[in-house]
From TrEMBL, chain A:
This is ATP-binding cassette domain-containing protein. Belongs to the ABC transporter superfamily. GO terms for molecular function: ATP binding. The keyword Mitochondrion does not apply. PANTHER family: METAL TRANSPORT SYSTEM ATP-BINDING PROTEIN TM_0124-RELATED (PTHR42734). It holds the Pfam family ABC_tran. Residues 12-246 form the ABC transporter domain. Keywords: ATP-binding, Nucleotide-binding, Transport. InterPro entries: AAA+_ATPase, ABC_transporter-like_ATP-bd, ABC_transporter-like_CS, Metal_Ion_Import_ABC, P-loop_NTPase. Residues 233-266 are annotated as: Disordered. It comes from Nocardioides oceani.
Length: 266, 333
């Protein structure tokens, strides 16, 4: 498929990946290769398997079929977790006990810290520069619970940044975030991308992130239906349309009446 | 009072209360962070069976209680990890089974209810020298592991998915917290009793988080409140029994003193949270027209209206809207 970084090393290589949750197939026959330095967005309607794909790529969901290599290493023997940055899909960075912004961001340094050792000067510097990059340096000592939703989302991104990874997975970082916060987020991701990091982003709406995207992957019903140049919402003609083929795996009960003139393959 | 402190049993009791008060809130903080405040209570119930097995077999009840509480903690963690929707129910069944089993086995052992009461409500003044060493050893273990692994345990309790992608063995850390909670339950058993164990783990944390804004400060504050109320409660109950001939159970005095600390700090925390909300940013909204208002007084630090930083100036909240000084008048922001 098309790639703006054809010569560089593949950092994510998924071959014929399938994931089932509770026996129900959620992803089927997914092939995805992400090369170093690419900025890839995963698009698709709710329930199309975007988040499941990211969770499979980070090792949170076991593959029922297929093989996954990260940085050329099979997932089972992958140990360089400090090369991965993950921003999970969640609305809040707060938990049952107060935690300061610096503490939450500092937990992103764990991939680079040894057991039972205090935080080094490098650790504190990384936390400070991560907070600087997302524009929250002045809130480091505040409790995360006092921040707005968009600011908390930026804290979660700073946490992933603090580990200084090469490959970022972000699961809907812009969901429920207002425009100024989305712009702050886009600026941070743009700086990362310019520095050569690889970014895999799940999103519903690109908004200010649109200019950063190198490549778009569209999922529908757990399959990749488009993989190529960024799609524009208003780009009605002259681009590669997502395949119109129906890929529902459940038997069509309603469809024959709705679509009597259509040849439905199942 | 000074005479009282000269007694060996009182010195032992003070040491036991102090180290228990230090150790219990450390584990309690992780339980509160994971919203498992009642886990300690459940483990206390399960430990009753352990005590009863000790009474039946003639082994030291403290050791059998540790063993059974750890088994219970592992069972709870396994049930939780499976993520069954009925996990909560399974925990309740385990707790009630633990308590009922304990009472029944105590009866089989031919022991009276009074024997079991020593463990249910604590018997800090009858602690033996062996028990002191046992308590000290386990408390040191809890403090070293609980504080030494603070960054790891904090991350796991804060966000499990993130911790897993960071390469942490989430299951091992969760099990570690559950096992440490079981150990805490058994060392606090002698101080406040199995039925009030959870209070010494949770109430200091609830008190401390009223004032703290960071996790580390919450832990430090909780340890201070825990150790302070454990020692303070013991002294109060001793003083009452010597001077006024009133028998106050040390365990309940300790817990009520910790609760009093919470009641004392709650208004401060509520006031602080209210003040933080005033500092919270207004949601971004499009700037409306350039309205101006005449105003009877000059806004300033002393005018009594809440001040809100807004870009390069300060707005003053006034009757539900914001006033920004602009030359001779105020703009509505």
């Amino acid at each position: 498929m098309s790639s703006s970084h054809p010569g560089s090393e593949p950092v994510v290589e998924l071959r014929d990946g399938a994931v089932a949750i509770g026996g129900r197939p959620v992803l089927r026959h997914v092939d995805l290769t992400v090369r170093q330095g690419e900025f890839v967005t995963l698009l698709g309607p709710n329930g199309s398997g975007k988040s499941t794909l990211v969770r499979a790529l980070t090792g949170l969901r076991p593959l029922t079929l297929g093989t996954l290599h990260l940085f050329g290493t099979p997932l089972a023997s992958f140990r360089d977790w400090h090369r991965l940055g993950f921003v999970p899909q969640r609305s809040s960075a707060a938990s049952g006990v107060p935690a300061s912004v610096a503490e939450v961001v500092g937990s992103g340094r764990l991939t680079r810290r040894r057991l039972l050792r205090p935080a080094s000067r490098a650790d504190r510097a990384a936390v400070a520069s991560a907070l600087e990059l997302v524009g929250l340096a002045d809130r480091a000592r505040d409790s995360v619970a006092t921040l707005s939703g968009g600011q908390q989302q930026r804290v979660l991104i700073a946490r992933a940044l603090a580990g200084e990874p090469d490959l970022f997975f972000l699961d809907e970082p812009t969901a429920g975030v207002d425009l100024p916060n989305q712009q702050a987020l886009a600026a941070a991701l743009g700086a990362l991308s310019a520095a050569g990091s690889t970014v895999v982003l799940v999103t519903h709406e690109l908004g200010p992130l649109a200019p950063l995207v190198d490549r778009t992957v569209v999922l529908r019903d757990g399959r990749v239906v488009y993989d190529g140049a960024p799609l524009q919402v208003d780009d009605a003609h002259g681009h590669h349309h997502p395949s119109p083929r129906r890929t529902d795996h459940h038997p069509g009960v309603v469809a024959p009446f709705d679509r009597s003139g259509e040849d439905v393959p199942w | 009072m000074i005479d009282l402190l000269g007694h060996t049993f009182m010195q032992r009791a003070l040491i036991a209360a102090f180290v228990t008060g230090l150790a219990a809130p450390v584990i309690g903080t992780y339980l509160v962070q994971r919203r498992l405040s009642l886990l300690g209570d459940g483990l206390g119930h399960v430990a009753v069976t352990g005590v009863a097995i000790g009474l039946l077999t003639g082994l030291a009840p403290t050791w059998t209680a540790v063993a059974v509480a750890i088994l219970g903690a592992i069972a709870i963690e396994v049930i939780r990890e499976r993520g069954n929707t009925s996990g909560d129910l399974a925990l309740a069944l385990l707790f009630y089974g633990g308590l009922a089993g304990g009472v029944m086995i105590t009866g089989l052992a031919g022991q009276s209810a009074a024997t079991l009461n020593r463990f249910l409500f604590g018997s800090i003044t009858s602690i033996s020298l062996d028990d002191i060493w046992f308590t000290l050893g386990l408390a040191v273990l809890i403090l070293v592991v609980g504080l030494g692994l603070l960054p790891q345990l904090f991350t796991v309790a804060q966000d499990q998915d993130f911790a897993r992608v960071a390469g942490l063995n989430v299951r091992a850390y969760n099990l570690l917290v559950a096992v440490l909670a079981a150990v805490t339950v058994t060392i606090a058993m002698r101080t406040v009793g199995l039925l009030l164990v959870s209070a010494l783990m949770i109430v200091p944390v609830a008190t401390s988080q009223q004032l703290a804004r960071s996790f580390r400060r919450t832990v430090v504050g909780a340890v201070l409140v825990g150790a302070g109320s454990a020692v303070g409660g013991l002294l109060v109950s001793a003083y009452a029994s010597v001077r006024h001939d009133v028998s106050l159970a040390p365990g309940s005095t300790i817990v009520l003193l910790a609760l009093a600390c919470f009641v004392g700090t709650w208004p401060v925390g509520a006031w602080q949270r209210r003040r933080d909300r005033l500092h919270a940013p207004f949601p971004a909204e499009p700037v409306e027209g350039h309205e101006t208002t005449d105003h009877p007084h000059d806004h300033g630090p002393a005018c009594g209206h809440p001040a809100v930083p807004h870009d390069d100036h300060v707005d003053y909240v006034h009757d539900g809207h914001r006033h920004a000084p602009h030359g001779e008048h105020y703009d509505e922001h």
